[in-house]
Write a structure and sequence with these properties.
This protein has 340 residues and is an alpha/beta fold. The chain has a single domain, classed as NAD(P)-binding Rossmann-like Domain (Rossmann fold). It is 39% helix and 18% strand. The protein has eleven helices and 14 strands. The strands form four sheets. The chain has a seven-stranded parallel beta sheet, with helices on both faces. Strand 1, helix 1 and strand 2 form a beta-alpha-beta unit. Helix 5 packs across helix 8. The longest helix has 21 residues. The structure holds nicotinamide-adenine-dinucleotide. Nicotinamide-adenine-dinucleotide (NAD) binds next to helix 1, strand 5 and strand 8.
Length: 340
């Protein structure tokens, strides 16, 4: 049985399908901050545990032989909204889950880390960074992911063999949709306004990867020989793209659906900027992501045209908007009690 934490999330919901399709038994542990609808289709085929990674008991690992750990805060704005909660969720809970796994003899543990660990800002030297590059993350999100990586590697031995995937920014369609990721934001913006706005001249580099390729990569890690992936860090990206290039790919992909203009703004110097090498994952796992930005944007457009996730104003698609709203409502509910 595979335990997938955060299985109700954007990447998780796509991964659940991939694992079930390949015949794995799946247990999802999720607080379902964004609701349970994304898993409706799979509900009868998975063991679905509604729970918090900050409060999980050892029994969550009963019958489990592999863990894929995705749960937590998943971008910069939500991490900065509450840095101490972010540290608890992204670092401390990861370490605790790893310790529980080690205690129970679960060796295989895949962790969803992030290439944002490499970010050193637009003024830094423009180099391609690999898994051995020195990193000095300073943002709350990247720092918490890096600290989690270090905690996992410190626990690694023959009884516990974590695999760390530093994922590029993800794009593509999921049953739990996010429109706060750069390519998905462009698709939404194209339909809503017919315009894509690119900041800082669009010069920033970013590694990106399609959500279905991320799910396939988890599978590749599970199926690989543990001696090849245990205790290893891998970058995962389809390609390094400049943001302006992304805007052009999205415009091209959506050509048949909507007319799109690209607005380029100059000025701000604070954008994230980094590019990475994927040679290690290609060499060791033979894994090469297949879905391009153009293909993925076209697929998202088809879904939108069919009316799926086309209610762009729904705050659930934007993690920070949704969390801010939940916190505000939670405050009021404490005072009001039930509404009716
Ligand atoms: N999406 C990306 O571009 C990207 C890139 C690099 C790394 N990652 C990492 O991949 C993982 C998944 O990202 P995503 O885009 O699917 O994010 P997401 O926000 O859609 O999903 C996160 C899931 O974790 C759950 N969760 C949050 N707090 C929880 C708690 N206390 N207990 C149990 N469950 C909890 C949420 O309910 C949600 O279902 C995250 O760890 C993220 O940091 C994502």
């Amino acid at each position: 049985m595979i335990l997938l934490t955060g299985g109700g999330g954007y990447i998780g919901a796509v991964t659940v399908r991939e694992l079930l399709d390949k015949g794995y038994a799946v247990r999802v542990l999720d607080k379902f901050l964004y609701g349970e609808d994304p898993l409706t289709e799979f509900r009868s085929r998975i063991d679905c545990v509604h729970g918090d990674i900050l409060a999980m008991g050892e029994e969550i690992l009963d019958g489990v032989d592999i863990v894929i750990h995705l749960a937590g805060l998943s971008n910069d704005p939500t991490a900065e909204f509450n840095p101490s909660a972010n540290r608890k969720l992204n670092t401390d809970a990861t370490q605790r889950l790893a310790e529980l796994c080690k205690k129970q003899g679960i060796k295989r543990f895949i962790f969803a880390s992030s290439c944002s660990i490499y970010d050193r800002g637009m003024m830094a030297e423009d180099i391609i960074q690999d898994e051995d590059s020195m990193v000095e993350p300073c943002a709350a999100y990247a720092t918490s992911k890096h600290a989690a990586e270090q905690a996992l590697l410190a626990l690694a031995d023959q009884h516990f063999q974590p695999t760390i995937l530093r994922q590029g920014t993800v794009y593509g369609w999921s049953p739990r949709m996010r429109y706060d990721l750069v390519v998905n934001t462009f698709v939404r913006s194209a339909f809503e306004f017919g315009r894509l706005t690119v900041h800082c001249g669009g010069e920033m580099w970013r590694p990106l990867v399609d959500v279905s390729d991320v799910a396939k990569c988890y599978l590749a890690c599970i199926q690989a020989d543990l001696k090849d992936v245990g205790g290893q860090i891998f970058n995962l990206s389809h390609k390094n793209y400049r943001i302006l290039e992304l805007a052009h790919w999205v415009k091209k992909a959506l050509d048949e659906f909507v007319e799109v203009e690209i607005d380029v703004e100059y000025g701000s110097q604070t954008a994230r900027d980094y590019r990475v090498s994927t040679k290690k994952i290609e060499r060791v796992l033979g894994f090469r992501p297949a879905v391009s930005v153009e293909q993925s944007a076209r697929h998202m457009a088809q879904k939108v045209m069919a009316g799926t996730h086309a209610d762009f104003h729904n705050p659930k698609y934007y993690n920070i908007k949704w969390l801010e709203m939940l916190v505000e409502v939670e405050k009021h509910l404490k005072r009001i009690g039930t509404i009716f």
